[in-house]
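Annex B. Sample input.
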Amino acid sequence: MKRVLVVDDNASNLYLLRQLLESSGYAVDEAQHGVEALVKARQCTPDILITDLLMPEMDGYALLRQWKADPTLKGIPSIVYTATYTDPEDARLARDIGADAFIVKPMEADDLLAFVDKTIVEAREGAPSTAPTPALEPEQGLTIYNAYLVRKLEKRSQEMEALAAEREQAIRALQTTERQFRALADHSLDMILQTEPGSVVHWANRAACEGFGRTEAEILCVRRSDLFDESDARLHALLAVREATGRMRGEATALRKDGTPFPVELSSVVYRTAAGETLANVTLRDLSAQKAAEAAYQTSQAVVASLQTAMNAHALLSTADEAGNITYVNDRFCAVSGYSRAELLGQNHRLLRSGLHGPTTYQHLWNTLRTGDVWKSEVCNRAKDGSLFWVDATIVPMKGPHTPVTQYVAIYTDITRRKLADQRRDELEAQLRETQKLQAVGTLASGIAHDFNNIVAAILGFSLLMREEIPPTGDAAEYLNQIQKAGKRARELVQRILSFSRPQPTARKDVVLQDVVQEALAIATATLPASISLQQALQEAPVHVSADATQLQQVLINLYTNAWHAAPAEAARIETGLDIRVFELKDLARPADLPPGQFAHLWIKDNGMGMAPGVRARIFEPFFTTKPTGQGTGLGLSAVRSIVGVHHGAIVVESQPQLGTTFHLYFPVLEARGLAAPTATSAVRPAALRGSPRVLYVDDDEPVALLAQTLLSREGFRVTAFTHAEQALAAVRAHAHDFDLMVTDFNMPGMSGLELARRVQSIRGDLPIAIVSGYIDAELTRQAHAIQIQTLVHKERVPEELADRLRHLLAPLEPAPPSHAP
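Annex B, continued. Sample output.
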């Protein structure tokens, strides 16, 4: 193995040459100067010497002289390899002293290796050395070498002086630069610190002093924990990044002198100075204002979001271009209209028109907007599903001071509920007016009925007395019969008027539907035009249902009235039918509201104009009506359905335009209970009066009072009659025990029959009292029972019933007949 001795005082040069040579198969010995090289060469003879020139202890020139003077070493080739002595004089001197070659650093590795290998081979093969024999004597060579060194030192001194001047100039430039940098740093808005990484602060700029609230001297003396919140995990993460990469950027929390935290953006770079010192520049930017602005922005965004939410919850927003094409809609607009945003954008607002507003409305809208004015109005629009919705619209044209209108902003408030409420209010007001009319009619009818009952009672009563005064046969008897028939018809008519003019309590009981229908037909005959033909097809066997007869009559009268309004001008016909229907579970004809079973089927059919399917589907809606204003409130059929439902029945409607309408009513039939007509039973007439009971009779109508006095007298009563309640009360006060009972009219001026009864009872509490009234309802019955009055007599039935009712009233007071033991 070839051995190389390398001599160089630079460890890096030694390392590089050793790596190069060893990688090529050489054994390498190292020396840092000539003395060490001679020792190692004599210990282990090398194949070649590679030496630098400028070295301590013994330089290369001295080494070469001694190398050539040593008998064991002078034959070993030597190479001077230097980067310091590069002048031709340096090479000549080295060869004069005995070097085989002179190489200037750097040299390509392959060239250097080839040169070394070639030199060793030539030496081993005995090739003549290229190194000249030293031409100078040692003393002469030393003189020349010393002179050469002096020149080198002078040249080096000059170079050092120039270098020192350059360094001084560089220092002055650096100082100038530092002053400029410090001036720039002090005028920077960012806080700048120079620190040793993880240690003390070397200097701080003015912004840092202001930001931390400390003087520069204070900043240079404090620890990092006094300047930064070390509990902020972000700070430690940033320091770890700087430790790994030499730089970092991020956010952290700094501390003012008083301990107040404030957010900063932190950036830092670690670097080495020319003197080899490791420092770090730290730049901080106070983010307090930015964070406050961000917080304010977030707050404003939250407010905007809240306003948007509130707006979406309340208002419909849209924008449109100058042609009315939609460019924006909010969520509320989509929700109310039923269209998606994609379906609306780009469409013209005409898409939403309901057809309820004429062209003049939209013409006025555009005329207003094009003049730059705001347009306000209530508008009805049509949703995607065809339903209508109302909005309170405000449309604002958007334009600049000198530009035409390019956009319209519309704000709508959904007022559909309000409009419906207004409509309902109007309908309720109309209903109220109708109700008030009915109440007025009822009050009028009640007042007329009171007087009319007195007249009817007098007619029937006196005609009864006349019958006893004339022969039972002949024209006079027939005339009297007609008078009595007319009087009874008048009595029935009054009762019908009262039953419909006053509210009646629901009282369901076993009724025969045929009787209810006949009563309703009688009323319809009296009220509907005579041109309408009322036909009936009722089965003969009685049909029993549990019902309130008055409410069923109300149902029929409503249906008759509707049929009349739909009737043709000529040949109008209304047919009423009744039969029994039995529905099985799977019977397709069974109405959905009915369970299987037996039902009374009542139908009312007309030949009127009929109804279209859309109208037929809505006829039972409250307040829906197709009649002109003043002919109906739209409540009749809803009341009909309600009454039918209360009776556990069902209603089905068949109708076609121009083909008439049929209402089918179904009611559960009561269990079979012997449908034969009941046999008449004669009333049990009370026993004859014992003695002549004294009756105090009070009625403001003088003919009725005279009639009662006459009738009761014929039955054995002694009657004292008064036409004023005060007179009767005075008689009781004067002669309290002169009367066995009192009969009083209920409806009298000044004092009612109930009030007279109370006052009489306060004078004589045991006196039996009967009250006569043209209309006896639940309230009158309740009040009468409250003061222990059990006998109430319908005035129109006074001639037939009064005497018998008084006998019943007196029966408990009469002493029992004496007992006769056998």
